[in-house]
């Protein structure tokens, strides 16, 4: 981490943030044994330049994990570059292109990762809905996503996995979201059964705008067997600042060969606590008239959701060989 020669005020803010991170009790990952995977909707990240303090806070939060899906990454990547500079030379990012129309909202999806813990395996692609041949043309029909889901392949130790990130539209209500989520579930099911799926271990993350596991939207995304990792089964916390909605999700298809890959640890990193603690990170003398709304454009209106993944599958591989 390269915080460097920060101001005394920023140093005090970073110390307060570290206290909040410690309170989240995120277990340390262990090389070739576990990784910590997170998804975080960083509000309109890149649309407007963030303060130096916000860049350092974002980097400090991201550094708690080994692989992070970033939702609402915008066309301008300058602030992402500033964050990566603070994180240090071992950190990298891969990201999708932008859908330029208003439905795409100028957004990308990206993955930020620590090369000391895992490596990018080469596959990076957007999801494209099935096409139908009409005359001499292959055309996409009725259903589509406003923002294209993004898929990438990684390896940690001997453990290969695919991770897909999505940002489902808010729309006018559940019915708008339902169509996109059902299309995504159908696409994932077809993909994981195809030869494109280089491994059967699949993680699905992002902002699905699903309020809870009791919602029909949740039933739609899990209709083919996607599971919530054990560490996230509790409904006692949310990923919004009010901590009462689980709009963000981490779901999994564990490989039959290694069903214990997803450990029973997970949760949210609550950097916010409540509105009274905003000044601890952004003191009024440096950030006058910083409303809660403006604060969400410095950090975010979402909290990072995380899960620990076991990557040491040597025992499972040996057991499979022994049983042949």
Quickly list its features.
single chain; five-stranded mixed beta sheet; alpha+beta; 324 residues; 8 helices; Deoxyribonuclease I, Chain A
Look at the helices and sheets and give the structural class.
alpha+beta
* Assigned CATH superfamily: Endonuclease/exonuclease/phosphatase
CATH topology description: Deoxyribonuclease I, Chain A
In the CATH hierarchy, what is the architecture at level 2?
Answer: 4-Layer Sandwich
Could you tell me how far the N terminus lies from the C terminus, measured between alpha carbons in angstroms? 47 Å
What spatial order of strands do you see in the largest sheet?
3-4-2-1-13-12
Q: Beta-sheet strand percentage?
A: 25-35%
What is the C-level CATH assignment?
Alpha Beta
Total number of helical segments? 8
Helix content range: 10-25%
Helix and strand element order: HEHEHEEEEEEEHEHEEHHEH
Number of domains: 1
Which residues sit in consecutive blocks of at least 5 with pLDDT less than 50?
A: none
The whole-number mean of residue pLDDT values reads 93
Largest sheet: 6 strands, mixed
Overall shape: it is globular
């Amino acid at each position: 981490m390269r915080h460097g020669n920060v101001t005394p005020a920023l140093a005090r803010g970073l110390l307060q943030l570290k206290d909040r991170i410690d309170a989240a009790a995120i277990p340390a990952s262990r090389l070739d044994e576990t990784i910590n995977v997170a998804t975080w909707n960083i509000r309109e990240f890149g649309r407007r330049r963030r303060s130096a303090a916000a860049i350092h806070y974002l980097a400090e939060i991201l550094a708690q994990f080994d692989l992070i899906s970033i939702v609402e990454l915008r066309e301008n990547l300058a602030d992402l570059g500033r964050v990566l500079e603070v994180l240090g030379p071992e950190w990298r990012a891969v990201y999708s292109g932008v859908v330029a129309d208003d439905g795409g909202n100028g957004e990308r999806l990206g993955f930020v990762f620590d090369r000391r813990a895992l490596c990018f395996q080469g596959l990076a692609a957007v999801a494209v809905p099935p096409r139908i041949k009409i005359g001499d043309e292959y055309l996409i029909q009725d259903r589509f996503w406003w923002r294209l889901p993004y898929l990438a392949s990684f390896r940690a130790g001997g453990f290969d996995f695919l991770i897909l990130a999505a940002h489902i539209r808010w729309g006018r209500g559940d019915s708008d979201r339902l169509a996109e989520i059902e299309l995504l579930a159908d696409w994932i099911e077809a993909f994981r059964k195809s030869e494109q799926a280089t491994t059967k271990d699949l993680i699905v993350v992002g902002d699905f705008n699903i309020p809870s596991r009791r919602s029909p939207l949740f039933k739609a995304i899990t209709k083919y067997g996607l599971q919530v990792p054990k560490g996230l089964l509790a409904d006692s916390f949310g990923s919004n600042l009010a901590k009462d909605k689980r709009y963000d999700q981490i779901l999994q298809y564990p490989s039959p060969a290694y069903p214990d890959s997803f450990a029973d640890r997970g949760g949210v990193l609550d950097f916010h606590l409540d509105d009274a603690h905003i000044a601890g990170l952004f003191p009024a003398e440096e950030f006058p008239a910083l409303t809660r709304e403006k604060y969400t454009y410095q950090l975010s209106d979402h909290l990072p959701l995380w899960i620990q993944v076991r990557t040491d599958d040597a025992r499972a591989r040996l057991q499979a060989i022994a049983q042949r």
